[in-house]
Amino acid sequence: MTNDERWAAADERAGAFDAKGATLDARRIRADFPILAQPSNGKRVVFLDSAASSQKPIQVLQAMDEVYRRAYANVHRGVYALSEAATARYDEAREKVARFIGAPSAEQIVFTRNATEALNLLAYSYGRHFLRPGDEILITELEHHANFVPWQVLAQERGLTLKFIPITPEGQLDLQKLDELLTPRTKLVSFAHVSNVLGTINDPHPIIQRAHAIGAKVIVDASQSVPHMPVNVSDMDCDFLAFSGHKMLGPTGIGVLYGKRELLEAMPPFLTGGDMISEVRFDGPRWNEVPLKFEAGTPAFVEAIGLGAAVDYLSALGMAAIRAHEREITAYALERLSEVPGAKIVGPTDPEIRGGVVTFTLDRVHPHDLASLLDRDGVAIRAGHHCAQPLHIRLGLSATARASFYIYNELHEVDALIEAIYKAKAALKR
Amino acid sequence: MQDLYREHILDHYENPRHHGVIEHADISHEESNPLCGDRIRIDVKLDGEGERYRIADAAFTGDGCIISQAAASMLLEDVVGKPLDEVAQIEPQHVLDLVGVPLTAARVKCALLGLKVLKTGIKLWKLQRT
Lengths: 430, 130
Ligand SMILES: Cc1ncc(COP(=O)(O)O)c(C=O)c1O
Hints:
The structure holds 2 protein chains of 2 kinds.
Chain A: H1 3-15, H2 26-30, H3 34-37, E1 39-40, E2 43-44, E3 46-47, H4 58-70, H5 81-100, E4 109-112, H6 115-130, E5 136-140, H7 149-158, E6 161-165, H8 178-181, E7 186-192, H9 204-213, E8 217-221, H10 233-236, E9 240-244, E10 255-259, H11 261-266, E11 277-281, E12 284-287, H12 301-317, H13 319-338, E13 343-346, E14 357-362, H14 367-376, E15 379-380, E16 382-384, H15 389-395, E17 400-404, H16 411-427
Parallel strand pairs in A: 3-15, 5-6, 5-7, 7-8, 8-9
Antiparallel strand pairs in A: 1-2, 4-10, 9-10, 11-12, 13-14, 14-17, 16-17
Helix pairs in contact in A: 4-12, 5-12, 6-7, 13-16
Chain B: H1 7-14, E1 27-32, E2 39-47, E3 54-63, H2 66-79, H3 84-88, H4 92-99, H5 105-129
Antiparallel strand pairs in B: 1-2, 2-3
Helix pairs in contact in B: 1-2, 2-4, 2-5, 4-5
The complex binds pyridoxal-5'-phosphate.
């Protein structure tokens, strides 16, 4: 079957689709995403790269367009109606994000450019202010460079020791080593809630509880969890949590840092300038309250409002339903891939502990060649080390192929992926 | 897709020319493409002297995608026997012409890795001698 035939068959089934149980009606959802209806190379694209960045629904595009057309003026500084309208919407977006992740208050939501900036903010502001030579930072072997390099640089600069929670051969964190790795000198623990390569969903509770027990603060890189499953910072009791808007239907240029209030208040600013001060005298500045203390300069408030609309969209679907939908597709993809001769799944094969990320290698086919060949078939996947080179070194692989799923993906797209893989194997005579 | 993986490219990948290492090479250099992890090392043996240095032999090893490895094989096939100064001036387009199939921007980087290694190796060798 060609992709077009597969889509046509799915179109037909869609009429009879009964939204069963908790899972989503991806077909109806797709109608909100103009880019998914647009042909690429004359074909409807099978988009399997949402872990890198998601597509955007019209609701998000319209929310931003609306601000530019009707309510645009710089926030915070104007006393006139337009500025107040923009400021009110910006504040409202902050409240939506706070509710979405269960933060006690909107003041604990700092808008950043992305997760990378949120983590750098912590390394600069918290790390450079509170950590002393000889202190230890504990991260894991499966981190994205965004939660790896800032700590490496900080450790080198400040004479800190960086330690790593190892992974098991199945690609889970080896928590048996945790008590050994946590020492009285451990001041910070930072880990990915969900791995962007292995897909592993790391249970945050045991790590956070044990880190707190020895007095360390805990950062959660939630870049791959907040878009895909229910996340509640209050239940989790993490000290900080970071994620990007663009992976969760929002625009680029907006990310979030959540922090416990007393920690955010004790931290010095990251960048300085306008908006983040309450007063500037010739003898020095006085910092603004949180979160504005951390938002120097004109913020990406239109993008924040777009993120607010994305949060509305996701909330209406329900994060538990989104997770169930992705689990179903992931389970199917794991099953189908395991039947492909020469294909090796990287990371856990149990969909219960795996997010919607399926990474694999194909015997004697380099992931780049595979991705190029799949692209000719209208199937978009990612190839490379996915900004997790230390993990790839650990796995003994230079590159992997990754298919990732989101709310708009349908089961038959997995069939398209598998068929394209067989075609690629044939083209390369593998 | 037939385009990108034409017979001659697959052939260079399966049966790379000038593959291996040269003991006591005059030039040895290795680089990798940080985005995809493709890695190539090239050894060069020179003969002639002064203005008339010539590439007497060259060999590469590496790992990576078909495009990066096949392009390196084609490049070495092309440069062996040529004057060093001429090789030092090779333009990227020359390698793309050797490859001879349309490449997307991301894949151009793969195709040019071998040339980058060779030219950097030559440059470092020249620097060392001055
Ligand atoms: C686990 C994880 N952390 C951090 C990031 C960095 O996100 P961004 O590039 O939006 O800052 C990503 C995105 O690829 C990710 O998957």
